[in-house]
Amino acid sequence: MPELPEVEVTRLSFADRIAGARIQSARLGKPLRWPLGLDPQALAGRTVRGVRRRGKYLLMDLDRGVLLLHLGMSGSLRFDAGLPEAALHDHFDLVTDRGVLRLNDPRRFGAVVYCDSETSPEAVKLLGGLGVEPLGGAFDLDAFHAALKKRKAPIKQVLLAGDVVVGVGNIYASEALFLAGIRPTLPAERISKPRSARLHAAIREVLARAVAKGGSTLRDFSNAQGESGYFQLEAMVYDREGEPCRVCASPIRMIRQGQRATYFCPSCQKR
After folding, report:
1. How many Cβ atoms are within 10 Å of 182's Cβ, its own excluded?
2. Phi, psi (5° rounding) for residue 91?
3. Alpha helix (H) ranges present in the chain?
4. Side by side, which strands form the sheet with 66-70?
5. Rounded to the nearest 5°, which phi and psi values hold at 5?
6. Which of 191, 135, 136 is nearest to 158 (CA)?
7. Given 34, 72, 201, 256, which residue has the most CB atoms within 10 angstroms?
8. Is 56 known to be catalytic?
9. Pair 58, 37: CB distance under 8 Å
10. What is the rounded CA–CA span in Å between residue 235 and residue 249?
11. pTM for the whole structure
12. Under 8 Å between Cβ of 6 and 229
């Protein structure tokens, strides 16, 4: 599943090129997770002002309205002037005078949703419960620690929930907890202020490094220029069950939390 770094990498790979483009037409393929919310041809004639990110959502600001794009579990975007004819899993095309933005999504858990504004009910329903952005200035340590003290659930589950801090998905939660030396099963309320500070810094560091590496390509992720990411090649624990820890050489362990795989080092993350 594309996580925050993959979504940000995708945004960076086409945002500058599509800003200022005039929409000529739009095409919908098979139904996605949620309906578009208007006739696709009603988008013709509008201008793309820019592309932002909120959690795992891309927000494409138009001169009238906004398009919310979500990559779901298997989606990816391409933006190019010379794309071939749409194939089986190409479910949305936005044709502009600068190229075609195409959503390919084999599992169709992704979505493109039109809203009149970011404050419209449709947008608030999707974005209203999201936590603070981890790479922005609003990610405050004191507020982060205070939020953790109110949660009895394991810290890995709290990070994945997305209402304390948004976008720390499965891969990067495991990596940040390793960097902070915190066992993923530890109840969040038991994390001290100093350890919260280490985790706060680790979340920022891991996500920023992942963006710099182009994200993680575990199966088929690529950015809007078709380029793969390389963060997974330097992962400390994720998907390394049984392999030696890069710090202490202890075998990396894997457990299941909420049906998701969690990887950790039993020596470096004792508690």
Report:
1. 25
2. -110, -5
3. 4-18, 121-127, 141-148, 155-161, 170-180, 193-212
4. 48-54, 57-62, 66-70, 111-115
5. -60, -40
6. 191
7. 72
8. yes
9. no
10. 14
11. 0.89
12. yes
Strands annotated E in 64-186 = 66-70, 76-80, 90-96, 99-104, 111-115
Beta-sheet strand order (sheet of 23-28): 23-28, 90-96, 99-104, 76-80
Which residue carries 């075609």 as its tokens?
Answer: 100
d(CA 111, CA 105): 9
Instruction: State the Cα–Cα distance between residues 88 and 173, nearest whole angstrom.
Output: 33
**Residue of 11, 17, 53, 56 with catalytic role:** 56
Q: What is the pLDDT along the chain (271 residues), one digit of tens a residue?
A: 678 888 998 999 999 999 999 999 999 999 999 999 999 999 999 999 999 999 999 999 999 999 999 999 889 999 999 889 999 999 999 999 999 999 999 999 999 999 999 999 999 999 999 999 999 999 999 999 999 999 999 999 999 999 999 989 899 999 999 999 999 999 999 999 999 999 999 999 999 988 888 766 444 545 556 555 546 668 899 999 999 999 999 999 999 998 899 999 999 998 8
**Amino acid at the residue 247:** V
Residue 182 corresponds to which tokens in the numbers above?
């915190």
Write down the catalytic residue from 27, 190, 213, 260: 260
CA–CA separation, 5 and 167 (whole Å): 8
| Active-site residue flag, 3 | yes
Specify whether 260 is catalytic: yes
